[in-house]
Amino acid sequence: MRYASVTNRLAGLGSDKWAVHIRAREMRQAGAEIIELTIGEPDIPTPSDMIDVADRAMRAGRTGYSNGRGEPGVLAALAAKYSERTGRPITPENVMCFPGTQTALSIVMLGLAEGGDEIITGDPLYATYDGVIRATGATRISVPLHPENGFRMQAADLEKVITPKARVLLLNTPHNPTGAVLGKKELAEIGEVCRKHDLWIVSDEVYELLIFDGKFTSPLDLPDLADRTIAVSSISKSHAAPGFRSGWCVGPKAFTQRLLPLSESMLFGVQPFIADMTAYALGRPSAAAATMHENYLRRAERISERLNGIAGIVCKVPQAGMFILADIRATGLTGDAFAMRLLEEEHVAVMPGESFGENLSGYLRLSLSVADDKIDAACAGIVRLASRLQQRKYA
Ligand SMILES: Cc1ncc(COP(=O)(O)O)c(C=O)c1O
Q1: Handedness of CA 21, 22, 23, 27 (dihedral sign)
Q2: Are 109 and 135 in contact, with CB atoms under 8 Å apart?
Q3: Do 301 and 204 fall within a single domain?
Q4: How far apart are CA 135 and CA 258, in angstroms?
Q5: Secondary structure E strands in the chain
Q6: Which of 30, 112, 164, 305 is the one with CA 20 to 30 A from 101?
Q7: C-alpha pair distances (Å), 391 with each of 93, 331, 377, 384, 388
Q8: DSSP-derived pairing of the beta strands 229-234 and 35-37
Q9: 17 Rama class: left (phi>0) / alpha (psi -120 to 50) / beta
């Protein structure tokens, strides 16, 4: 039988990126005790008041079809959130709801780029962006993000990779895996380059509420960029609710009008009871975000204290997010090799930096959504392996 070329473009995507995680699960299945710091999923339950709202809505019959844009209540709540944040009137016509940021990203990209186009991302990048971009038929072009700039994209580096085929810059601030938060000046400079080359900016902002150091700015907040920016986000991280799959995009009215038929052809909207719960959550400060903020910052500091400067490791507290990076280049191993040995020899699973792009070669990404005692045990394992490697180097 014949298949469409999209299946070839996506075939085999990413399974080697997850080799350590997959091996860790196999070892666990076989009875080994593994400390897993690979994936980042909120480690606190979805707040019970949100679940109560969804439950009451379901019992009140909010279980029918919705529509391609979203339920009026959640659209109004999102319009209010973004009007307040940007200081400009954002209306429900600027907003569309989707099952999570991931779906929003996929549908938004299908509306902006296709075969023959280029979509630009930073490198390192969030692991699913490759699939989102390849599905459109477009090619991904990388802007290197340098550790000496705190992994924040610089306008001059962006300018260097732009060709006439470029259509979209996919930004991620706060950034996964580095935690980098783009400042207003950096965004304005990046935005200037995008205006010059007539690029769309898609801004993935799922970690907006998990910033430890710095102030959140979105390109959407900058009036000069509003006509070319689409912000995507969700309640997955901000409200510890990834399983509810409640996300959205906010952009120019002309854009959402164009996108609507695409969304209608895929979804009959998102579930009304989840829309009600999301509207409720957006109407008040997120206690879940406050708890995670406190926990993740404490754990990042704890990890940095235990690893930074030990056996050549560099491990600094990130600006934001659910992860911390450890630079293990001084051990002489790649991130892939270190992570695999760490799993086999110390039963600690972390993500190799290489899974997030070539610019993160020789790094490890550690999840902060793991209890403190496990974090301590994982750090001890990393220190033991790094010390063994150092002894061998100087033996
Ligand atoms: C940068 C980034 N974007 C998007 C997502 C997915 O978010 P959602 O659950 O809203 O689809 C994640 C999840 O880890 C992420 O790290």
Answers
A1: positive
A2: yes
A3: no
A4: 19
A5: 35-37, 95-98, 118-123, 139-144, 166-172, 200-204, 229-234, 247-250, 323-327, 348-352, 363-367
A6: 164
A7: 62, 10, 21, 11, 5
A8: unpaired
A9: alpha
Q: Could you report the per-residue pLDDT of 88-121, keeping only the tens digit for each? A: 999 999 999 999 999 999 999 999 999 999 999 9
User: Does the C-beta of 236 come closer than 6 Å to ligand 1?
Assistant: yes
Radius of gyration of the chain (CA): 21
* Residue 107 structure tokens: 């549908």
Is residue 247 within 6 Å of ligand 1 at its C-beta? yes
Q: How far is the CA of 176 from the centre of ligand 1 (A)?
A: 9
Q: Are residues 41 and 79 in the same domain?
A: no
Which residue range forms the structural domain that includes residue 247? 48-282
Residues 273 and 318 occupy one common structural domain: no
Whole-number Å distance between alpha carbons of 37 and 44: 15
Q: Whose CA is nearest to atom 12 of ligand 1?
A: 206
Same domain as 337, residue 362: yes
Residues 251 and 382 in one domain: no
* Chain position carrying tokens 């000069």: 224
Question: Within 13 Å of residue 146, how many CA atoms lie on the same side as its CB?
Answer: 7
Residue 15: pLDDT above 80?
no
* Cα(102) to centroid(ligand 1), Å: 6
Give residue-wise pLDDT tens across range 297-332.
999 999 999 999 998 899 999 999 999 999 999 999
Please, are residues 193 and 163 in contact by the beta-carbon 8 Å criterion?
no
